[in-house]
Structures are given as structure tokens and as C-alpha cells.
Prior knowledge:
Order of helices and strands: EHEEEH
Helix content: 25-40%
Largest sheet: 2 strands, parallel
CATH class: Alpha Beta
Radius of gyration: 15 Å
Distance between the termini: 42 Å
CATH architecture: 2-Layer Sandwich
Strand order of the largest sheet: 1-2
Strand content: 25-35%
Structural class: alpha+beta
CATH topology: Macrophage Migration Inhibitory Factor
Amino acid sequence: MPVITIDAGKMSKEQKATLVKELATKASETLNIPVEAFVTIIRENDMDNIGNGTQLLAEKYEKR
């Protein structure tokens, strides 16, 4: 059972459904494994929980 894990920011249910479908389909084609064998795990992270360089993404993007 191949596992695809994604760490990302907040997403809508529709975005997650599209992402799962696209990732599993492409991985299936690339690895020649049935798409049904793939498990996809999405971990959503708040911008307060992600750092880039020396600052939180929440701080970085609030300045824009």
C-alpha cells in the first residue's frame, strides 16, 4: 500500500478532493500500480505553524 503524504496550508474540501485524485492518478501512471492501492494523507497547517526562513508565514503574508 503506497502512501502519499502532503503537508500544506488550509484547503477547501473541493481542493483536497482534486489533490487526492490528481496525486493518486499520476502516481499510479508513473509507478504502474493500481490507483486503488494508494492512500493519501493530507495534513493541513495553520500559517502560524509554518516558518519560512526566520519568520512565520502568518507574519510574512500579513505585511502584503
